[in-house]
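Please check the following.

. . .
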Amino acid sequence: MASLDSVLDKDGVRLTVEDAVATVSLTNAAKRNAQSPALWRALTEAGRSLPGNVRVVVLRGEGKSFSAGLDRQAFSPEGFDGEPSFLDLARGSDEDLDAVIAEYQDAFTWWRRSDLVTIAAVQGHAIGAGFQLALACDLRVVAEDVQFAMRETSLGLVPDLTGTHPLTGLVGYARALEICATGRFVHAAEAERIGLANLVVPTEELDGAVRDLAGALLAAPRDAVIETKALLQGAASRTYEEQRIAERAAQGRRLRDLAGLGD
């Protein structure tokens, strides 16, 4: 029987590892997994703490909601204990503000590493920063009660936690603009229809469906999955001819490796 090792547990984030599968859990169910700078730093640390044998990372939220988004305490004059408030950050220089937001974004970037396949298991609310965290993953398996929404514009802000690029890639510019500008909810059936969700399942089947998907992803050799993910990630920025060249180069590497002729 595989052992389940706890690698990190802090600031509303827990990382556990079972063989080649890591699970990152948001653990503040009482606050619907609302997000804070401390949580973002813990997510960044989780990414840096992954053992080298991990191939699949599952992201989940405990309780009824995946994540209700940014903790509104961020907008209070006092902010979070030991943290500058967002109002204080706004009074700083452009350079300082840019550096702080870039640090926050680090929590959302490592999920697309080419050596990992990441799956968001999403139930209930995935709003604002919660929506962007689900979008940070490669794949999304969602429960029938899921409610996605990008509510930043209703607060006078823009989505700035890396969500705009994957959202536009998944649903196209016009629909992404409409979802972001209106802040409306996207429910399970629409999410599957427009490409936000890979699979919709009853809430009680969410964990099992994610386990099955992780197992299917582990069935193929790791290097083949890595090369395939890299090919697909770069496809949108390449011409058709450039993609053909990239495919040939990747296949050449795979064939040499299989023949024992790799570096």
Q: What stands out?
A: Residues 255 and 261 are 8 Å apart (CA to CA). The chain has a mean pLDDT of 94.
